[in-house]
Amino acid sequence: MTWNIQPDRPVYLQLIEQLELALVIGEYPPGTRMPAVRELAAQAGVNPNTMQRALQELESRSLVLTQRTAGRTVTQDAGMLAQLRGKMAQTQVNDFWESMKKLGLSAQEIVELIRRQAEEE
């Protein structure tokens, strides 16, 4: 996993967002064991306590489950992951839409830009 930690926002929030993305795209597939806290912290270049805090938040959202003998595993609830994916996508669309409106583009111009981009893909 590639980590991108910026100095302008709380680190643990960035860790949560990046871990959620990793879960949604299947970098850590449903039901699989997550790497240990220290391993993830070393990869991200953060304090293990900060990584622990991020993982505890994912646990409180039931995205990651802790089993004393097996460590942390990714939820097997595909519906929950799909819902998170949809929420993340909607946030991206909202941010994009607002940015385009700030540029002075109309709804029709924005839709046309998206259509052209999709055709190029």
Topology:
Blueprint: H1 11-24, H2 37-44, H3 48-60, E1 64-67, E2 71-74, H4 78-102, H5 107-120
Antiparallel strand pairs: 1-2
Helix pairs in contact: 1-3, 1-4, 2-3
Keywords: DNA-binding, Transcription, Transcription regulation
Pfam families: GntR
Organism: Ruthenibacterium intestinale
Written description of the protein model:
The protein is mostly helical and 121 residues long. The chain has 2 domains: 11-76, Orthogonal Bundle (Arc Repressor Mutant, subunit A); 79-120. The protein has helices at 11-24, 37-44, 48-60, 78-102, 107-120; strands at residues 64-67, 71-74. Strands 1-2 form a two-stranded antiparallel sheet. A hairpin with a 3-residue loop joins strand 1 (64-67) and strand 2. Helix 1 (11-24) packs across helix 3. The chain is elongated. It starts with 10 loop residues before the first helix and ends with a helix. The relative contact order is 0.12.
